[in-house]
Structure formats: C-alpha cells, structure tokens
Amino acid sequence: MNGYLIFILALLIFNWLLSLIVETLNVRNVSTKIPEEFDEIYDDEKYAKSQRYLKDNTRFDQVQANIMLPLTIAFILLGGFSWINNIAKSTSDHMILQGLVFGGILMVISQIVGLPFSIYSTFVIEEKYGFNKTTTKTFIVDIFKGLLLTALLGAPIFALILWIFSSVTNAWLWAWGSLSIIQLIILFIAPVAILPLFNKFTPLEDGELRTAIEEFSKKQNFTLSGIFKIDGSKRSTKSNAYFTGFGNTKRIALFDTLIENHSTEELIGVLAHEIGHCKKGHIKQTIVISLISTLLMFFILSLFITQSELYAAFGIEGTPLYAGLIFFGFLYAPINMILGLLGTILSRKHEFEADAFAAETTKAPGEMIKALKKLSADNLSNLTPHPMKVFLEYSHPPVLDRIKALRAFERN
Ligand SMILES: [Zn+2]
After folding, report:
1. Distance of CA 285 from the midpoint of ligand 1 (Å)
2. Which residue numbers are catalytic?
3. Angle formed by the axes of helices 264-279 and 365-378, to 10°?
4. How much distance in Å is there from the Cα of 240 to the middle of ligand 1?
5. Given CB 3.0 to 4.6 Å as the disulfide criterion, which of 44, 265, 324, 365 pairs with 359?
6. Residue from 373, 297, 284 nearest 50 by CA
7. How far is the CA of 362 from the centre of ligand 1 (A)?
8. Does the residue 400 lie in any domain?
9. CA 347 to ligand 1 centroid distance, Å
10. CA 129 / ligand 1 centre spacing (Å)
C-alpha cells in the first residue's frame, strides 16, 4: 500500500479521535454550580440553558465528524479524485483550465456536503436557543455571495499559483511573494470592498457613544478613520466588535447587537481592548507570522508537489499540479495544526495584553469585566472549558481567566 495513503488515512483518523476525546472531556468539565463571578448574571435556569447549548453543539459537531470521516475516506479510496480529474481533463487540454474545473467541482461538492450541516446549525440549534435571525433568503444569498467571491478571488489566485509552479524556477518563492502581495491588498480592500457585501456598515450616529469613542481614541493618539455600526442582527443576536484596515484607514465596527446590550462605559472598554491590539503591535505581528508560515508551506509544498507517489495515493496517474496542491493540503495538516497551536498560544497572550491595555487606559477594569460577563452570558459561552480544549482551540483565554487578570488591576 502507498505510504502517503497510509499516512493520510492515519491522520484523518487521528484527528477524529483527538476531537472525540477533547469534546468528551470538555462536556464532562461543566460544573452544575454557577461560578461565583457569574452569580449575578446567571440564574440556575439560564446557566443550565448555557450547558444544554454546549451539549447540543458538541453532539452536533460529533455527528458531523462521524459522517465526514467515512465519507472522506470512501471518497479517497473509491477514486473520487480520479473521477473528477477525468472530467477536468475531458473539458480542456490546458492545465490551468483543467485545474479550475477540478477545483471548482471539488468546491461545489464540499458546499453540497456541508449544506445540511450548516442548515441544521443555523435553523435548528441556533434557532432553538433564540440566536438565529437569519432568514432563508439571507442564508441562500450568503451562499451565492460566498461562491461568487471564491470565483472572483479564489479562481484567479489558484490559476496564478498553477501558472507559477508550471513555468518558473524557484516557484515556491515566487508563489509566496505573489500570494503575500495579494493577501496584503485584500487586507486593505476588504473593509471597503468585501465586508460590505455581507453587512451594512452605517456610520455611528452622533451622540454620547460616538463622542465618548472619539474622545477616548484622541486621548490614546489613535486615528480612527471611521466608526461604524454593522447590522449583525441580520443573522444572529450574538454580538461582536472588530477593527479593520491599517495605518490611516483604521475603522472600528461595532455590531448593532453589541451597542444595544452594553453601556457606553462597557463599549469604551471593548474599544480600548481593540485599540490595545493595534498599539501593542499584535496585528503587525500576526501578519508577519502568517507571511513566514506561508513561506514555510510553499517550501515544503515544493518538495512534495513532484512526487508521483503522492498522486498515486489518491488514485491519480501522472502529476497534475492542480490536484497536487489539494493533496498537499492533506499531507500538510499536522504542520498546519502545530502552527495553529502556536498561533492560538500567541493569540491568548495577546488577548491578556489587550485587556491589560484596556484596564490601564480606561482606568475602569470593572466596566471591562461587566462587558465580558454580559458578552459571555448573551452568547451562552462555556464558562468552564476543559484545559485541553482551550490549549487546542481557544484563540481567547476562558472568560474567567480574563476576569481574574482584570481583577488584579482593580486592586491597584
Ligand atoms: Zn482581542
């Protein structure tokens, strides 16, 4: 049997098993007693509801994994890739066009397979807990917008990478350089050209909140080119806030749901946290790390892309580059996972630093704590995740850890 095939199948099974173990530990880690910090926020009924939400989601994820694992393995072993490759080859003699057909069919298949899960998650689970605001129309339109975006951005990028690997020496360097430039451009244009496709951004109206935000950012010497309210309520009652853009195009977007549920002081805490990410250089660090890891990926890709054994593992004769790029994704999964772990460790550290920045600059850690509590309760977040779950997946520290760190500022 092909060594690559054994390795990839073992990886798929390992990942499934790991997630089974972690999810089981995580669900068992719930406490029936409300953590002290949340005494005033939760009553027994609402706390029990948050635990049912966790259990429903965990069960759902597990069912999805239990279906996807055999489906993926069957697709590989029964020659699914070779079948798609034959269709791609029959449509054109040109490698890049074949690649676009190959990638396009794979994308449509994965959309179709994923659809029932995403329908169930949105219209059954989220609905049951009162989060869902997505209408059938928004749901369908979102899918088509996503596909359109992939066609307009993803297809040309895929074609470019194929062209580079088929015609340039040191292709991995060139591919990395071009992709990096494209990524940076996308980061710049996303706030004005991509995000508005999915949400409506309205400048925050004049008033107490806007004045407070302007005053605070001015005090921090932080130039905001825009303060926006976005219609998060179009899809869900869950709330959020984020920064987009760079340099002089930095804009803050606050979900309408966030504005509704929080006081001005709490919102300033949230804003201060986001400004903290910029001031502490987190955003730049993240971009640099992502550039370096992409470089590593392309280098390793260049070592495997010509190995006919890798293609044979998926039942394909020859070495059609477009298929190789997809197959490499399976092979690269463990390195990707390790890099992802390092990324979340760093991200959790950044979160503590941004919280500290917010506490120091607003001098109101209590407001930040109130905001965190409300956010957790409104989103029915798991207050007591298992440490292994946190280590493997959490980009933010568990909320009780963040509150504990903020309490230290209160005492000073
Ligand atoms: Zn943050």
Report:
1. 14
2. 274, 355
3. 100
4. 11
5. 365
6. 373
7. 16
8. yes
9. 8
10. 26
And the tokens for 31? 């406490």
CA nearest neighbour of 254 among 274, 229, 234, 277: 229
* Helices vs. strands in the chain: H and E counts, helices first: 18, 4
- Residue 89 domain flag: yes
Mean pLDDT of the chain: 94
Give the span between the Cα atoms of 375 and 238, in whole angstroms: 8
pLDDT tens track for 66-114: 999 999 999 999 999 999 999 999 999 999 999 999 999 999 999 999 9
For residues 344 and 347, give the distance between their C-alpha atoms in angstroms, rounded to a whole number: 5
Residues 226-257: b if buried by 16+ CB within 10 A, e if exposed: bbbbbebebbbbbbebebbbeeeebbbbbbbb
- Using an 8 Å Cβ cutoff, are 376 and 399 in contact? yes
User: How sure is the predictor about 398, in pLDDT bands with cuts at 50, 70 and 90?
Assistant: very high
Report yes or no: 111 and 149 within 8 Å, Cβ to Cβ. no
- How many angstroms does the Cα of residue 99 sit away from the middle of ligand 1? 39
DSSP conformational letter for 35: P
Bridge partners, residue 252, by sequence:
227, 243
- CA dist., res. 123 & res. 387, Å (int): 30
**In which residue are the tokens 């007693």 written?**
33
Angle at 179 between CA 328 and CA 298, to 5 degrees: 35
Distances (CA, A) of 278 to 96, 275, 330, 358: 40, 5, 34, 12
Number of structural domains found in the chain = 1
On whether residue 145 sits in a domain, the answer given is yes
State CA 265 to chain mean position distance: 28
227 token code pair: 């303060």
CB 332 within 8 A of CB 173: no
Find residue 215's DSSP bridge partners.
none
Q: What is the whole-number distance in angstroms between the Cα of residue 274 and the centre of ligand 1?
A: 6
Rounded to the nearest 10 degrees, how much is the dihedral formed by the CA atoms of 398, 257, 220, 369? -40
The bridge status of strand 241-244 relative to strand 201-203 is: unpaired
Average pLDDT on 387-399 reads: 97
d(C-alpha 204, C-alpha 258), whole Å = 13
Residue 168 domain boundaries: 3-200+279-411
Considering the domain boundaries, does residue 252 fall inside one? no
